[in-house]
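Hi R.,

Here are the chain sequences for the assembly we discussed:
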Amino acid sequence: MNAWYRTTAVLLLLVSGLVLQQSVQVLRIHEDGQPGSGFMPFGLGLALAALSLALLVKHRRRDAERRPFWERRAWLHPLLAVALTAGFIVVFDDVGAITSVAVLVTCWLWLVSRKSLPISALTGVLTAAAVHVIFERFLQTPFPRGLLF
Amino acid sequence: MFDLAGLAQGFGIAFTSVNLLWAFIGALLGTAVGVLPGLGPAATIALLLPVSMKMGSPVTAIILMSGIFYGAMYGGSTTSILLNIPGEAASVVTCMDGHQMARKGRAGAALGIAAIGSFVAGTVGVIGLSAVAPPLASFALRFGPPEYFSLTVVGLLLATYLAGDQPLRGFIMAVLGLILGCIGLDPLSGAVRFAFGVPDLMSNLDFVTLAMGLFGVGEILVSLEEGSAASILTTTVKNVFPTLADLARSGWAMVRGSVIGFFVGILPGGGAVLSSLVSYAVEKRVSKHPEEFGQGAIEGVAGPEAANNSAASASFIPLLTLGIPGNASTAMIFAALLIHGVTPGPFLIKEHPDVFWGVVASMYIGNVMLLVLNLPLVGMWAKLLKVPYAFLAPMIMVLTLVGVFSVGNSVFDIWVMLALGVLGYLARKLAFDLGPLLLAFVLGPIMERSLRQSLLMSGGRPGIFLARPISATLLAAAALFLAFGAWSGRRRRRQAAPA
Amino acid sequence: MRRLVWRLGAVVAALAAAGAVAAAEFPDKPVQLIVPYGAGGSTDLLARAVAQVAPRYFSQPLVVVNKPGGGAIPGRLDVTRAKADGYTLLFGYGSGEDLVVPHQRQIPYDVFKDFETVARISIHSIVIAVPAESPYKSLADLAKAGKEKGSLTAAVSTKGAAVDITFLLFGKAAGIKVVTIPGSGGADAVTRLIGGHADFGGGHPSEVIPHIKAGRLRALGVALEKRDGTLPNVPTCKEQGYDVVTAGSVKGIAAPKGTPREVVAALESRFQKIAADPEFHRIMADLSQPVDFMTAAQYRPWLEAASAQYAGLIKTLGVETK
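And here is the predicted structure of the full complex:
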């Protein structure tokens, strides 16, 4: 456990470094004797650096037993879901919203939830229909249109 | 002060069949958009603006719109409790205990208490509106930049307090939330911050995107890891309605929440969020079993839910008496009033008593309708959780994706949401609490703006925060709060040490 | 497989035929008005007023689409990238983001080269106002107070925007130091002014008129060449001896570059009819927004002149953002 938090603290330190660099080099801490656009980011960068150091100190001890961040292959399903969703966003504009919703739900149920293909496809189409009725008809969202709808 | 004749006139107007019908439609539509992620009440009211222009009377139009507004307030808590997705900033606090209750199979009780709490708060709000509206509104005007700064300092402290027994992680998340709030245009100098040349990043991140990503998508990813077989709710849904014991526990919480919400909610900008935070902190402080907070304490749902609902009523005070809209929804209602030739302001009560009292009365009727509408729905919502999570997960995902798109009509926002979802997933795995991050994100821009405005007003002297009485009082409260927190934390550690 | 190809072919042919028929009459589908601001703001309300009256002159509805955020730049960028067919229009062309911001920082498109001007609908002047209980009754009183106090604070919506520039220009004309305090928008600035958290302030007529009517604000001057139609009793700054004249904030309509000329002309003539519609005038009066129509041929040179004027002001006042 401690090791994970040490890693987190280092990552947060990097973030605080970036924030500090931006607030000093790109933004202005002072402007005509007044706090400028970089004033608050600079303070926040310092605060984050201090807090991550505190986190580092708090978890300085070695772990009694090592535990992996993910249990055996536990990362597979979340990764698959993220990949499918990323694919959805890529095609969203060109294929059209409604079609991509149907495809996403079908693929998700089939690949991640391991349902049979007919059930997956049916659920996908029904979900897409519901999205069309609620968002496009009822709330008039200007969805990108694509090949089919 | 209390104008009974006016209120009676108002009920006379609101009780016509046309107005009752529109109040019902408004509450129904509001609940629906509140439950759906994305498109909030303001956008829905904008969609209905042309319809309202065709309505003969401004009262009817405002009745419909205010119905949408507080219906959405209520609907937002439904997703917070069931799916851990806060629909708007004011329901972030509801997620804390509401979703924990749902996980323990008590979704029905949480939803029921939220409905009853909203109703109680609505009642308090309407009584307050008819009794003390005008003097309170002018008090709210005295809140200038220094007062807002001090208020947000208190709010941020309360937000980190939510993180419970891990104050260090709470502070880290709050600072991260403040940093995320800096992305985009600096409100004061117009400089672009942390955009790295990407035009889409020049806009400030949207709350809905952040909430959907961190809470909604993060939650889905975590539950996928637990294996698709394990649903979010392992236990069966038992006693759909709150029990008498629940009501007894949360009764005073509702009343306290309503009163807090009413007074804090008057402040334009951030009033509703702050009121739910204050109410949660108060409940945790007065509770006989503070250790249950964060684990599904029913007072932690009842108080903040009542607070944000009565804050919604209270936000009508500056709108109707001063013509100052405090949030996006009341801004749309303001516009609708103008289009109907009614100028909200101190003369509204005198010149258009039918509008003022009609709206007040219809808010009350709307609250009754919300209760009638939602108590039967509680069972239905609770049953929704019986749908196997394997099916529910992709549908929630689609709802968040489409919902975020509908807010800004931008594909870039969906990418941001997905990235934040991964961040939320990792944070959850490391037991970092996301509530403080989201609340700091909302309060941060107000804090920075008011800090810099105050310094511009005073010519750079920070003494202005102590020279103004309201601001000084608030800062003193914050200091006391910090000192007390440190003291009780130390005592707890000392007590724990010998064991 | 062959049947699939055949069917696909049929679909394509049908679509092409539909497209050919449709091309005869513009518009054959809803026209999107992209408002790069949030719902409820003055540009959004204007767009909705236009959309409300439009069915009398358009065979298809006008749909208002809000794309707020990013200093209103991303919404504009989307229009420049949209298909140049007249179905995606920018609403609010001529605001500070088009006239002022390009002189202060880099934006990812060219305000003049990437848009086709369609029409001007309205022009919002800038009003200088004080709280009703303030002792100042004229700009001269304000200038005098400024000399006594050393400097005056002014509540404005955004730094470097048209209102900010106008107030600084007043300070220069009156020979006093003006510290402008920006915030989160027009409504916020007016609220702070009413609460007495600044010496003076103001904004566009639609923002201040409800409060002037309610007796909470007093207008001292209008930064226009002539008096504003919505505030006929308020003298201009020039009448009071201060040479403060700016273009204010203009609400026009533009199409993406390359939109066919006949489509632009069709749009222009329809918006002209809307601008003459009595119901539209009634709604606009309720919103305290003046109707001030210009055709594309008049509006384009007017815009270029206004942009040049702001460029000059930004240089002399030293209002730059980073």
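The first helix of chain A runs from residue 2 to 25. The helical segments of chain A are 2-25, 39-58, 76-95, 97-112, 117-138.

Let me know if anything looks off.

Best,
T.
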